[in-house]
Amino acid sequence: MSLRHRVFAGRRPFGGAGAGAGAGAGAGAGAGADVAAGFAERVRGELVRDLPDDDLGEDLEDCLDLYEWGSKPRCEEVEYLRLVREARDRMSRGW
Q1: Which whole number is the average pLDDT over 39-52?
Q2: Torsion of the alpha carbons at 89, 41, 75 and 67, rounded to the nearest 10
Q3: Can you tell me the distance from the alpha carbon of 48 to that of 22, in angstroms, rounded to the nearest whole number?
Q4: Dist CA 45 CA 40 (whole Å)
Q5: What is the pLDDT of residue 94?
């Protein structure tokens, strides 16, 4: 058995209680969704701090789809798109 399996055996991600602790079937799922939503808001907050002059919508995918090329100087445009894509990818991965 690998070290990872020995150390984390019986633990659930995102602080959910195990079945032996008397938790209901959906108890861990709600906590995981709350953590994921909190993480997404934290990533969005970091992006807003990095791009204070830009109006970012709720959906970063829309932000990328609706972006008009040439609306910023080239160096700013590349940085803006890189930051938005990285934030979108971090939110979808969850880390």
Answers
A1: 87
A2: 80
A3: 41
A4: 9
A5: 76
